[in-house]
């Protein structure tokens, strides 16, 4: 296609939302009219499925749940008055609570005001809050946010060390929809112990965001925590950023949560239109389908040319891969669906892996995100008539062009600025695109059965660890690995046992190794 034809294609397919100042360009994905004609009826069905979902149908059949994240930003759409008022009241409670913290009506014991937030959560209970904090957090917010999103002891120590003495003015948000996620529970217990070591009463600093009646909810009630915010069962973890999960930390940081919700609501309205060409989420899902042949054959590389959007790809990784990565479709056929997502930011990544994108294996398509406004205020001229922002813009255009010349496809999103409204709209855009894509490829986007396998396996390793320690403590001398495995009654698990012992020994806990751990056959093991 020559330059004139490409320019025509660009204009033919350009989506523009005037209210949001949002552009979507799918012209560099090479679908043709025949493909669009073939997909149109499939999208018509997908629009119907999403419409039913928005009206409260059980869209997650396995878990027998409604899928209601769309109601969060337009409570009037909730299927009944109870749900509507729950959304409205939660928002009101978040705002009231935030105001009490900001005005120092609620204070930490013996201190003037809260200075920091420590948010403990993982997956959907961390990625959205982390993304929004990075995208919208001010340099000097009313409360500075810190995260623990893992059960890594060294990571926890680093975060606690960074807080140092400010722990006594830190509000702890423990976020877990299920209220039983081990990493989050461990983080909470570690942090609680840190408060106790300083003689501070943890419950005066702790807030739970969780499902009603969950283990976490029970702990928060029993210990009389400072506050609890509900997380509804019809909001999935990876679509929970605009529920109390994301809104509470954002509001506490002084971010305009009403504006985030308004942006999402506007994008919801735009992506509800049941017409492929005038619906940006449908256009995006169409482009994904074409690029990956409806089977995820190409990875999605997310390249925002704006530092504050650095964590968008990580956020989208869960949203897209946990939603679309499924073994079976809704009819039970093995389909092994999914789209792999990665990326950081441009132009930084041009100096890392764009070499491979341009010349190496052609197994991806790129989504470039362009932000029109460079910065607040005016810019220094780096060269005569040229600013740093001109460079950034030039790099984006150049990369898009260079990739396309080499038959690498791309989508380009253009936004005016990174504001709460726009961030809300981006979240809503991708949520809808995922819903539509899943409907088109006939999978359940709202469950995550595969995650359970890893959790169960981890639990069984911890169980095995207890058995190993027990056997060794009852044995006087040393044993070979094979003997330990025999005594535990799990000769099949000798490799797991070896790794458990190596880990405990490295931490100087309970067991010790004699011999060379690099040559497991020669090792002898004993209780410490
Ligand atoms: O919010 P929680 O219940 O603690 O869940 C945190 C995460 O746990 C699991 O790994 C799920 O697969 C995720 O979808 C979820 O976001």
Automatic annotation (TrEMBL):
UniProt-listed CDD domains: SIS_PGI_1, SIS_PGI_2
Main location: cytoplasm
Class in the EC hierarchy, top level: isomerase
Entry keyword Cell inner membrane: no
Record keywords, A-Z: Cytoplasm, Gluconeogenesis, Glycolysis, Isomerase
Transmembrane intervals: none
GO cellular component: cytosol
GO process annotations (BP): gluconeogenesis; glucose 6-phosphate metabolic process; glycolytic process
Active site positions, chain numbering: 322, 351, 455
Organism superkingdom: Bacteria
HAMAP family linked to this entry: G6P_isomerase (MF_00473)
Function per UniProt: Catalyzes the reversible isomerization of glucose-6-phosphate to fructose-6-phosphate.
Similarity field: Belongs to the GPI family.
Protein name: Glucose-6-phosphate isomerase
């Amino acid at each position: 296609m020559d330059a004139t034809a490409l320019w025509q294609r660009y204009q033919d397919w350009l989506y523009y939302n005037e209210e949001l100042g949002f552009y979507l360009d799918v012209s560099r994905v090479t679908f043709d009219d025949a493909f669009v004609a073939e997909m149109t009826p499939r999208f018509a069905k997908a629009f119907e499925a999403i419409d039913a979902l928005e009206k409260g149908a059980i869209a997650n059949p396995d878990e027998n749940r409604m899928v209601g994240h769309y109601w969060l930003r337009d409570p009037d759409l909730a299927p009944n008055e109870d749900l509507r008022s729950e959304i409205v009241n939660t928002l009101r409670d978040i705002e009231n609570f935030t105001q009490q913290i900001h005005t120092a009506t609620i204070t930490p014991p013996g201190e003037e005001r809260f200075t920091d937030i420590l948010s403990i959560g993982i997956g959907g209970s961390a990625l959205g809050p982390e993304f929004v904090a990075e995208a919208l957090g001010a340099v000097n917010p009313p409360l500075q946010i810190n995260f623990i999103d893992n059960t890594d002891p060294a990571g926890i120590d680093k975060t606690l060390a960074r807080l140092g003495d400010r722990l006594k003015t830190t509000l702890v948000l423990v976020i877990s929809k299920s209220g039983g996620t081990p990493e989050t529970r461990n983080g909470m217990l570690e942090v609680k112990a840190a408060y106790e070591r300083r003689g501070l009463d943890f419950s005066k600093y702790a807030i739970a965001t969780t499902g009603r009646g969950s283990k976490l909810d029970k702990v928060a009630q029993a210990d009389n925590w400072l506050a609890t915010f509900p997380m509804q069962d019809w909001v999935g973890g990876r679509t929970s950023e605009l529920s109390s999960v994301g809104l509470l930390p954002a509001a506490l940081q002084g971010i305009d949560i009403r504006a985030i919700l308004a942006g999402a609501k506007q994008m919801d309205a735009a992506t509800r239109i049941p017409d492929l060409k005038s619906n940006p989420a449908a256009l995006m899902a169409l482009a994904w389908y074409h690029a990956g042949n409806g089977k995820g054959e190409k990875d999605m590389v997310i390249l925002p040319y704006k530092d504050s959007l650095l964590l968008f790809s990580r956020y989208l990784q869960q949203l897209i891969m946990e939603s679309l990565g499924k073994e079976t479709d809704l009819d039970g056929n093995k389909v092994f669906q999914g789209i792999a997502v990665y990326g950081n930011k441009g132009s930084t990544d041009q100096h890392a892996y764009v070499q491979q994108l341009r010349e190496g294996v052609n197994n991806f398509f790129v989504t470039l995100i362009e932000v029109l406004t460079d910065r607040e205020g005016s810019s220094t001229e780096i060269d005569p008539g040229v600013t740093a922002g001109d460079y950034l813009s030039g790099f984006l255009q150049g990369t898009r062009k260079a990739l396309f010349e080499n038959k690498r496809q791309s989508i380009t999103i253009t936004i005016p600025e990174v504001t709460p409204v726009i961030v809300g709209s981006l979240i809503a855009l991708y949520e809808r695109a995922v819903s539509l894509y899943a409907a088109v490829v006939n999978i359940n986007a709202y469950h995550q059965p595969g995650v359970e396998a890893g959790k169960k396996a981890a639990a069984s390793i911890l169980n095995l660890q207890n058995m190993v320690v027990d056997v060794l403590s009852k044995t006087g001398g040393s044993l070979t690995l094979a003997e330990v495995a025999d005594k535990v009654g799990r000769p099949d698990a000798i490799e797991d046992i070896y790794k458990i012992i190596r880990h405990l020994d490295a931490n100087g806990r309970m067991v010790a190794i004699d011999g060379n751990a690099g040559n497991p056959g020669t090792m002898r093991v004993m209780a410490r």
